[in-house]
Design brief:
307 residues, alpha+beta, 5-stranded mixed sheet, 6 helices, 17 strands, 33% strand, elongated
């Protein structure tokens, strides 16, 4: 299956998930975790509330994987039948599930299975990515693509499906050229349906201001890669590549951190704070600037210049 067809299928399935999972999640909201299973008609996911007995991250992940193998009267376990796993590991904020068998011929079911597993496991604190891989001697037939090893970010299957032609006015923040604060610029943005808004805003910040947006600097080094970005419990966790700290930008470190936090917090109503990671490790010091574990809007508020 081509990547383009895969993208279209994921968007279609995600639209169904947005319309169907809301009610299921509402029923399971009294539990700390939701285990996502396939509806019996095979067209959507059903959230089943679950309270783990364990307290450590790895043990909670093992419990959730166990629950992903249990079917109910009105739902089917995503890990069942021709899909079975043999091992799980957790390292550098990535959960790796090794399958002893992964054989799914229906492309919609294939996407739903992957979505169910990723959305269930990524609820655990500290999980940024979920990796699928199969053992060498495993049965491996997938309608999408062979599962050799593929890594999904926590928000990969949580998308905002809307009208792509409708621009939304965003307030973007960049370090000012004067160096005394951040520069606010307004820009109409057309969001990509295949990315979360957090991802899209971070890409815009890395690209930097346009020529028309005078008085603003591109604070983030252009070579910086977004390893993952997702929001849990109203805290957006941004995990960037080592280039973010290795290359020296023109702007002050404090203003770069605050430009990112301001852009995410002020444009996304579901974000109250931003947590920074580099290569999966918490960013505590950015050059000489001490970075809090979570940056909130009212923390050391810088002066602002509007355009």
């Amino acid at each position: 299956m081509s990547k383009r067809v895969f993208v279209i299928l994921v968007c279609i399935v995600s639209a169904v998930l947005l319309s169907s999972c809301g009610k299921a999640e509402e029923k399971a909201k009294d539990y700390p975790y939701q285990v996502y299973c396939l509806s019996n008609d095979g067209l959507s996911l059903k959230a089943v509330g679950y309270a783990p007995e364990a307290s450590s991250q790895e043990m909670i992940l093992k419990e959730l994987l166990g629950q992903l193998q249990i079917s109910g009267e009105d739902y089917t376990a995503p890990i069942s039948g021709t899909v079975s796993y043999s091992n799980m590991s957790f390292e550098d904020h990535t959960v790796t599930v090794t399958f002893s068998s992964y054989s799914v011929e229906d492309p919609v079911k294939d996407i739903l299975i992957r979505a169910a597993i990723v959305r269930t496991l990524s609820q655990v604190d500290g999980v940024f990515n979920v990796a699928f891989q199969v053992s060498q001697d495993a049965s491996n037939l997938s309608a999408i693509a062979p599962v050799i090893r593929v890594v999904y970010s926590a928000d990969y299957f949580v998308m905002d499906i809307g009208e792509p032609s409708e621009p939304i006015m965003m307030r973007l923040y960049f370090p000012s050229t004067s160096g005394d604060g951040v520069k606010e610029v307004e820009r109409p943005v057309i969001f990509d349906d295949f990315k979360s808004r957090e991802q899209y805003l971070m890409e815009i910040l890395i690209a930097g201001p346009t020529k028309a947006e005078t008085g603003a600097l591109a604070g983030i080094p252009a070579s910086t890669k977004i390893l993952s970005v997702s929001t849990k419990n109203r805290i957006c966790t941004v995990n960037l590549s080592k280039e973010f700290t290795k290359e020296k930008p023109d702007a002050a470190a404090k203003l770069i951190i605050q430009s990112i936090a301001y852009t995410l917090i002020r444009n996304l109503e579901y974000v109250d704070g931003v947590s920074f990671y580099v290569e999966g490790k918490p960013l505590t010091t950015f050059r000489t600037y001490e970075v809090s574990s979570v940056i909130y809007e009212n923390e050391e508020k810088p002066s602002e210049n509007k355009q």
